[in-house]
Specification:
Elements (H helix, E strand, L loop, with lengths): L3 E5 L5 E7 L6 H6 L11 E5 L1 H4 L6 E6 L5 E9 L3 H12 L2 H5 L5 H8 L2
Length: 116
């Protein structure tokens, strides 16, 4: 099973978004494997934790990225992104429908994400 999905964004602030698919593995273990290009001018990454934390104020967290391309762990900040970012995040979760259906999310939240 995939642990995460990494997708790049054409946003002025963020390098991209990481969707965590495995709710059992620690976030640090998931993200430590990721490296970003050091020449990238944008230095933040959004992490979608819907399948780990639920669809609430803790769903999206932002981390700064170091000049060497690694996540800076002490820079976490929970955010409420705009609707476009939420729609993109839900789109990636829809592509992994089976994981969402079998997740710990309440049925109503699964339906919201999957639009069923």
């Amino acid at each position: 099973m995939k642990k995460l999905i990494m997708h790049h964004m054409t946003d002025n602030t963020y390098i991209g978004m990481v969707t965590i698919l495995d709710y059992e593995i620690s976030l640090k273990k998931c993200l430590v494997e990721i490296s970003f290009p050091p020449e990238e001018s944008k230095r933040k990454i959004i992490v979608d934790l819907a399948l780990k934390c639920g669809v609430n104020q803790y769903r999206f967290v932002v981390y700064d990225i170091s000049t060497s391309g690694k996540v800076l762990w002490n820079t976490s900040e929970y955010i409420v992104p705009n609707d476009d970012i939420v729609n993109v995040a839900n789109m990636y979760l829809k592509e992994n429908r089976e994981i969402v259906i079998n997740s710990m999310l309440p049925t109503i939240r699964k339906k919201e994400i999957l639009n069923v």
